[in-house]
């Protein structure tokens, strides 16, 4: 990928996460104006909080207004809620002072936003996306993830924003295993689903956009806060957890009984791996990189510690009080209960195979890999899943479009 240099900004060395000294809170780009899409979603709210914590920045969030709620009130409500969940109530005054929501929709040209209403924009962060893995969602995925990115790029161009940050996914790697480099992905690569495919095409669109400086951030499977375990997401591992929990709860005398006392199987391999990264670590690393460099690059925001599928199965067993499953290569010997669980896991099944190791060289050379070093043991993973099970986030299939 070509390296593009833009105007210089002050470089800051990263410090180890968990040691948030005053050094970390140095304001590096005073009064920068950041424009965000998807700011009311799980990842978006974390980004807003991170920007508020680190900079004297003004943050404008493009949000679809809803009946009875303005764009501005939606942003303040969503970000305020997550600030409390993440134990960052110290940021609540900053939400009122430096964050606003205005009406916008990525499904519309230029996100249905007049650049004149925005003033000077220093950085655009495009996070809004449809996150569904369901095979019947192709049209919607392409409209929002590809078309929405095209509209966000057009708005950034009209605003003459010097920096465009696109939040993609590390799983544009698709069906590949082994070492996955921080490099462009061919548009004809094999993928597991339409979500991954839409992100591959959206990345290519950003790379050929002609904008002065583009960063593509690729988080892996994002889950709760690294310290409080809180989440507003129901995707990825939480989707698996919801499926198992629903089976135990809704069919306690049949499926639940087998899972608790008998033997059951799932297709997959215990030594296959997933890459899970806490939401606050993703936001912290991305904002740190945006402070440290103006180079157009791809960055894997992925955990340097993979998680075994076997540990996920063990954590689910601990949370729901069930037996651990046996892993099988095929469904040939499945019982009726096995088939029911297999169907419930649906779109998550492809991730039960494989071993991806994500290269983080670009991140490491820019800010170090401290934010990406978060070991996930069986007991720690169980703590994340237990928080979600007890607190039951409202199900969603996508991040906000606005």
From TrEMBL:
Domain (Thioester reductase (TE)): residue spans on this chain: 36-285
Species of provenance: Nocardia terpenica
GO molecular function, one term: alcohol-forming very long-chain fatty acyl-CoA reductase activity
Highest taxon of source: Bacteria
Classification via InterPro entries: FAR, FAR_NAD-bd, NAD(P)-bd_dom_sf
A GO biological-process term: long-chain fatty-acyl-CoA metabolic process
Record's protein name: Thioester reductase (TE) domain-containing protein
Upper lineage: Bacteria, Bacillati, Actinomycetota, Actinomycetes, Mycobacteriales
């Amino acid at each position: 990928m070509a390296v593009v240099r833009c105007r210089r900004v002050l470089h800051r060395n990263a410090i180890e996460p968990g040691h948030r000294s005053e050094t970390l809170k140095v304001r590096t780009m005073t009064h920068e104006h950041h424009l965000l899409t998807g700011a009311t979603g799980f990842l978006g709210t974390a980004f807003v909080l991170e920007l508020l914590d680190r900079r004297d920045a003004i943050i404008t969030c493009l949000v679809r207004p809803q009946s009875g709620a303005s764009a501005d009130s939606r942003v303040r409500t969503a970000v305020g809620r997550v600030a409390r969940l993440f134990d960052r109530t110290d940021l609540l005054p900053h939400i009122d002072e430096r964050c606003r929501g205005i009406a916008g929709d990525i499904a519309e040209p230029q996100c249905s936003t007049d650049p004149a209403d925005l003033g000077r924009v220093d950085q655009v962060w495009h996070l809004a996306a449809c996150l569904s893995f369901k095979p019947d969602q192709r049209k919607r995925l392409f409209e929002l993830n590809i078309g929405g990115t095209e509209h966000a790029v057009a708005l950034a161009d009209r605003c003459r924003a010097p920096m465009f940050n696109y939040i993609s996914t590390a799983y544009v790697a698709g069906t590949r295993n082994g070492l996955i480099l921080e490099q462009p992905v061919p548009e004809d690569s094999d993928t597991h689903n339409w979500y991954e495919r839409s992100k591959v095409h959206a990345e290519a669109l950003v790379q050929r956009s002609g904008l002065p400086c583009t960063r593509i951030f690729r988080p892996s499977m994002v889950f709760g806060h690294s310290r409080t375990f809180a989440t507003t997401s129901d995707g990825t591992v939480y989707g698996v957890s919801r499926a198992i929990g629903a089976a135990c709860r809704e069919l306690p005398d049949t499926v639940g009984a087998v899972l608790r006392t008998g033997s059951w199987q799932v297709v997959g391999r215990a030594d296959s791996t997933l890459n899970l990264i806490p939401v606050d670590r993703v936001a912290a690393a991305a904002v740190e990189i945006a402070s440290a460099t103006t180079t157009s690059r791809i960055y894997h925001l992925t955990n340097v510690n993979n998680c075994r599928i076997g540990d996920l199965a063990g954590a689910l067993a601990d949370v729901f009080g069930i037996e651990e499953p046996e892993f099988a290569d095929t469904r040939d010997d499945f019982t009726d209960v096995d088939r029911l669980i297999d169907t419930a896991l649906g779109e998550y099944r492809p991730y039960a195979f494989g071993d991806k190791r994500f290269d983080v060289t670009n991140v490491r050379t820019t800010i170090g890999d401290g934010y990406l070093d978060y070991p996930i043991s069986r007991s720690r993973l169980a703590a994340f899943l237990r928080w979600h099970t007890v607190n039951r986030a409202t199900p969603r299939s996508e991040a906000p479009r606005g």
